[in-house]
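User: I've been trying to design a sequence by hand for this structure and keep getting stuck. Would you show me what you'd pick, starting by listing the structure so we're on the same page?

Assistant: Good idea, let's start from the same input. This is the structure you sent:
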């Protein structure tokens, strides 16, 4: 006889709860688990904390323009490597990787389309292509788009999302600020309407050129908009920066932008403005 009897366990049957894959997602901002479908139908904004996630260039085109009206311009304009630049990696390798990842040839998609039947030139930047940085190609595409809108007397809309000028092209990148601003000055003199739509983040040379030159400037809530980063400014002026510095709400209070709109209200406002300013 065994001193201790063999304990008897019966298997506890656990009913498996089937969670459909892709049904839930974790918001990186509020850390709550949220309904992925509600997130998508709210155009990539968190249904709980309303944090606005980045959209791709093509998602912006789909959101703002009349269905199937977009005709892309300069799709095959490819970046070069004028300085033979290498940091941790070759610039040409970065370009190739960015294209593989995003299926884009550069950090902006430009073209002509319609908003409520009115002619519009739209440029949409994509942060996932080398941080939405502005090199020669981004500057050239913005300039050509502006000139086309000037010739055809159309409204111009640019959605910005950028880490600034592309350091791998050095001065060639910085020159794009002057070039895009020059084209926009002519556009402005012709009395045409340019709408700048600033998303998170819009910084550096893009803020210092076409992002700040809109006749109307709309920003998304909580978007980081500025030139140099807050840490650099703090170290330079040796002062603590105010709460909410460089966020769209702060910029609205200080007269740098015209309005802040949640993403779901942007298409209707764009339609209203385009209709009002179209000839
Ligand atoms: Zn959230």
């Amino acid at each position: 006889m065994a001193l201790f009897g063999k304990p008897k366990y019966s298997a506890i049957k656990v009913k498996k709860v089937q969670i459909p894959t892709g049904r839930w997602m974790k918001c990186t901002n509020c850390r709550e688990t949220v309904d992925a479908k509600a997130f998508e139908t709210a155009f990539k904004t968190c249904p709980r904390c309303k944090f606005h996630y980045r959209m791709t260039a093509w998602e912006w085109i789909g959101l703002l323009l009349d269905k199937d009206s977009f005709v892309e311009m300069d799709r095959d304009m490819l970046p070069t490597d004028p300085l033979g630049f290498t940091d941790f990696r070759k610039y040409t390798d970065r370009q190739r990787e960015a294209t593989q990842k995003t299926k884009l040839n550069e950090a902006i998609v430009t073209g002509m389309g319609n908003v409520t039947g009115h002619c519009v030139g739209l440029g949409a930047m994509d942060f996932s292509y080398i941080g939405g940085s502005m090199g020669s190609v981004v500057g050239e595409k913005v300039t050509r788009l502006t000139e086309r809108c000037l010739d055809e007397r159309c409204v111009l809309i640019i959605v910005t999302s950028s880490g600034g000028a592309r350091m791998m092209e050095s001065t060639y990148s910085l020159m794009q600020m002057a070039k895009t601003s020059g084209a926009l000055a002519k556009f402005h003199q012709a009395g045409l309407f340019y709408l700048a739509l600033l998303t998170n983040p819009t910084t550096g040379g893009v803020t210092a050129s076409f992002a700040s030159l809109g006749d109307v400037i709309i920003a998304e809530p909580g978007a980081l908009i500025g030139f140099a980063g807050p840490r650099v400014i703090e170290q330079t002026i040796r002062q603590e920066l105010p709460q909410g510095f460089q966020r769209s709400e702060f910029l609205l209070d200080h007269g740098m932008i015209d309005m802040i709109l949640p993403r779901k209200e942007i298409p209707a406002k764009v339609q209203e403005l385009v209709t009002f300013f179209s000839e």
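That's my pick for every position. To get oriented when you compare it with your attempt: The CA atoms of residues 83 and 169 lie 7 Å apart. The first strand starts at residue 24 and ends at 26.
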